[in-house]
Design goal:
The chain is mainly beta. It is about 15% helix and about 40% strand. The strands form 3 sheets. The chain has a 7-stranded mixed β-sheet with strand order 5-10-11-7-8-9-6. Strands 1-2 form a two-stranded antiparallel ribbon.
Length: about 180
């Protein structure tokens, strides 16, 4: 589905060996407005990953758009990153749980700004999966270096990212920087 991911439980019937989708499939059907006589083609990629192509009654492939993100952001929609990894000047890791909950499993660009500074930075949110389809890594990459340079980040500085917008079209963060030793 063009890189879009849904978590759906699959059960194998011991009698006939058929696969059945269970938990999570109702949300997928509702989101894509799937109906009887739609055509869905499944390709098994691994034991953890199945690729799907969906077509309506006329044979037109369904526009997948982005999977839904939370409509309202909970109060804990933030994370802190300390600039202390070997490559902190070029990329910053995001916790997998935060990424799953708030950002989705598909990489895309986000907009990041700092309190008191009018400039906004476009930073690419990137995701990685294992060969088995397990979500392994999320981080900001392209555009991060410009953010580091403009904000004069140094080793062990902390950046708190507060998610202000997360919808099908954009992701925006407000950041607050705490300098090392302060």
């Amino acid at each position: 589905m063009e890189g879009h991911s849904w978590q759906v439980a699959v059960v194998v019937d011991e009698k006939d060996g058929n696969l059945y989708f269970t938990d999570g499939v109702d949300e997928l059907i509702k989101y894509y407005k799937l109906k009887q006589k739609f055509c869905i083609i499944f390709s098994v990629i691994s034991t953890q990953l199945v690729e799907m192509l969906m077509f309506d009654k006329k044979g037109v492939e369904i526009d997948y758009g982005f999977p839904p993100l939370p409509k309202t952001l909970p109060t804990q929609s933030n994370f802190v990153s300390v600039m202390n990894t070997a490559d902190w000047k070029y990329k910053v890791n995001i916790s997998i749980e935060f990424a799953k909950t708030f950002l989705g499993l598909n990489g895309r660009f986000s907009h990041t700004s700092t309190c008191g500074v009018r400039k906004q930075f476009q930073v690419q949110y990137v995701t990685w999966f294992s060969q088995e389809g397990v979500f392994k890594k999320a981080r900001f990459e392209k555009g991060w270096r410009a953010f580091v340079q403009e904000n004069q980040l140094g080793k062990d500085d902390e950046v708190e990212f507060t998610l202000t917008v997360a919808d099908d079209y954009r992701i925006e963060f407000q950041t607050e920087i705490t300098r090392a030793g302060q």
